[in-house]
Amino acid sequence: MNWGTKLVIGMVCFMTMIIVYAVLMMRSDKDALVDNDYYEKGINYNLEYRKKSHVREDRAAPKVELRNDSLVVTFARAASGQLRMIRTADKRLDQQYEISTDTARVFKVPVLQKARGLWKVQLDWTSMGRPYLYEKEVMLP
């Protein structure tokens, strides 16, 4: 077999690979890296940025820590809002909790039954009429 034949075989194999990848890409239903509501998130980005800056300005970052079988969130002031636990590896495991703290300013989430690994904790709350947004990654053992 001479070099010309080998060159043609190599080019045919490469073109076949590209065509197979293109067909597989077109058949996939959706891209896992793109949110379904990306347009709304883009519009609301300024609101999220403002909420995050309120946390810095007011030094209101909550303390998020693992204690025994619970994720304990301690706020600087009484708060009400939402806590989202986002599993980056599997969207089906995402959970949302309603936050309402009393004078102790503590909110607990049981984590014993949750999957081990990296979770993103997103806190969206209001305290004294001012909105806040805080995110932290937590590793569950």
The gist of it:
The chain is of the alpha+beta class and 141 residues long. 31% of the residues lie in helices and 36% in strands. The strands form two sheets. Strands 4-3-6-7 form a four-stranded antiparallel sheet. The protein has a three-stranded antiparallel sheet with strand order 1-2-5, with no helix packed on it.
H-E string:
HHHEEEEEEE
Number of strands: 7
The unreliable regions are none
CATH architecture of the domain at 50-140: Sandwich
CATH superfamily of the domain at 50-140: Immunoglobulins
Helix fraction bin: 25-40%
In the CATH scheme, what's the topology name of the domain at 50-140? Answer: Immunoglobulin-like
The radius of gyration is: 24 Å
Shape: elongated
Q: Gap between N and C termini, in Å?
A: 59 Å
Quaternary structure state of the chains depicted: single chain
Largest sheet data: 4 strands, antiparallel
Q: Give the CATH class of the domain at 50-140.
A: Mainly Beta
In DSSP terms, counting alpha (H) and pi (I) runs of 4 or more, how many helices?
A: 3
Could you say which structural class the secondary elements and strand pairing correspond to?
Answer: alpha+beta
Biggest sheet: strand arrangement: 4-3-6-7
Pfam families: FixH
InterPro entries: FixH (IPR008620)
Transmembrane segments: 6-24
Keywords: Membrane, Transmembrane, Transmembrane helix
